[in-house]
Design a protein that fits this description.
- By secondary structure, the chain is mainly beta.
- It folds into 2 domains: about 270 residues, no CATH class; about 80 residues.
- About 5% of the residues lie in helices and about 40% in strands.
- It has 2 helices and 26 strands.
- The chain has a 17-stranded antiparallel β-sheet that branches. Strands 21-20-26-23-24 form a 5-stranded mixed β-sheet, with no helix packed on it.
- Strand 13 and strand 14 form a beta hairpin.
- It is globular and about 80 Å long.
Length: about 400
């Protein structure tokens, strides 16, 4: 009898698609996705006809569109989720010009897609589910007194994956191990309100949400995933120690919030919110215990969140270089530097008016022979290592 699978022996592996919407054929970009559990699940619509036919009580169902959604709860730790943070903010980490250990992340407009492989591993044989073309819909984080910092990444995708007995990710022959950085706790770091250290907080929660939508089209198997708007909301529970925060809620005064979490090794993440309005307040008392008003809040605008990461060891960065590939005139586009793995750039236009006698410029290719991957002008390029794009001549 086959051994029954268990949730404890379920692992998640994640990687990015390249700019051409293809899972790279090497396992190098794959990572173990640290998690507490998951609610990733697929749905296939079943379409039924109302047609009445003799000898049949109900119509045979037909398969419709499929989609996937769900979340991955996590314990927040250094380095483990940097690609997903960049994805939810639709941006790239930007390394500091003077200190390479510092990098910042601001809200942008760069769309990134991921795949997640579930591996159900037991002694008889493993089974796999491959979730394709996922976008990060939201990121939630919760900080409470004397607790680990926990969160959740919500995903949205286009396929309802089948169970397979052979690993469907080509090239992923060795499964990566989890990073060993420790989870952040509420004991290291600080909380600041209007740049002043705030020592009376009991709990802080926030959510960054892209409000993605699946847009189907006639005679197209897969829906497009489109980001609709960026929302930043949260709540802050604090002991009633003075009147300042309460009165800002009453008066509708805008505030800023900055929260930093540190680990024992010295890795730090500072998350800053601006243009915030507190939306609720109450001084009602329900018993003899401490009075802890809870303030719901919203940060208004698309540029109201900034994440600054300080690492003990600087993350490696790479360059995207352009080559004229035997051009006879003009200049190549400038080198794009300091790109962390997973960063997205866009294939440059022929800004330097490259020419080659008797040929026409036709975009870029990863090989000088033109036999690699083609990148048309404006196509997203996912940088995993130092990369050179060669002018393509036809």
């Amino acid at each position: 009898m086959a051994r029954k699978k268990s949730g404890a022996n379920r692992a998640l592996y994640i990687g990015q698609y390249n700019g051409l919407g293809v899972i790279p054929a090497t396992s190098t970009p794959a990572m173990y996705l640290r998690n507490q559990s998951d609610s990733l699940d697929g749905t296939t619509e079943v379409l039924k006809s109302n047609e009445l036919l003799p000898g049949r009580a109900t119509a045979e169902p037909q398969i419709g569109a499929s989609s996937v959604g769900g979340g991955v709860p996590i314990e927040f730790s250094a380095l483990s989720f940097d690609r997903l943070l960049a994805a939810v903010l639709m941006s790239n980490w930007v390394q500091d010009g003077t200190d390479p250990k510092i990098a910042t992340l601001n809200a942008g407009s760069i769309s990134k897609k991921f795949w997640i492989l579930k591996k159900f591993a037991e002694s008889d044989y493993p089974m796999f589910q491959l979730y394709k073309k996922l976008v990060v819909d939201s990121f939630d984080l919760s900080l409470a007194v004397n607790a680990l910092v926990t969160g959740n990444f919500a995903f949205m995708g286009v396929n309802d994956p089948i169970l397979e007995t052979i690993n469907p990710v080509t090239g992923l022959t060795v499964f990566p191990a989890a990073l060993t950085t420790s989870a952040f706790t509420s004991r290291r770091g600080f909380l600041k309100v209007d740049a002043v250290t705030f020592t009376y907080a009991k709990e802080l929660k926030f959510s960054l949400k892209n409000n993605n939508a699946l847009l189907p089209a006639l005679f197209v198997d897969e829906s497009d995933t489109v980001e609709k708007m960026f929302d930043v909301t949260g709540s802050l529970s604090a002991y009633l120690s003075d009147e300042i925060l309460f009165n800002k809620a009453v008066n509708g005064t805008k505030i800023t919030i900055g929260v930093e979490v540190d680990d024992a090794a010295g890795n730090k993440y500072l998350i800053e919110f601006s243009n915030i309005k507190l939306e609720s307040h109450s001084s009602a008392a329900s018993g003899k215990d401490e009075l802890v008003p809870s303030y719901n809040w919203t940060a208004f605008g698309s540029d109201v969140v900034k994440i600054t990461r300080t690492l003990v060891t600087a993350a490696p960065v790479f360059s995207l270089t352009y080559d004229g590939n035997t051009s006879t005139g003009g200049t190549v586009p400038p080198v794009v530097t300091k790109l962390e793995a997973g960063s997205v750039s866009y294939a440059a236009a022929n800004s330097g008016l490259l020419v080659k006698t008797g040929k026409v410029f036709s975009g870029w290719n990863t090989l000088a022979t033109g036999l690699g991957d083609d990148y048309a002008v404006g196509t997203p390029v996912v940088v995993e290592v130092a990369l050179t794009l060669y002018a393509k001549w036809v």
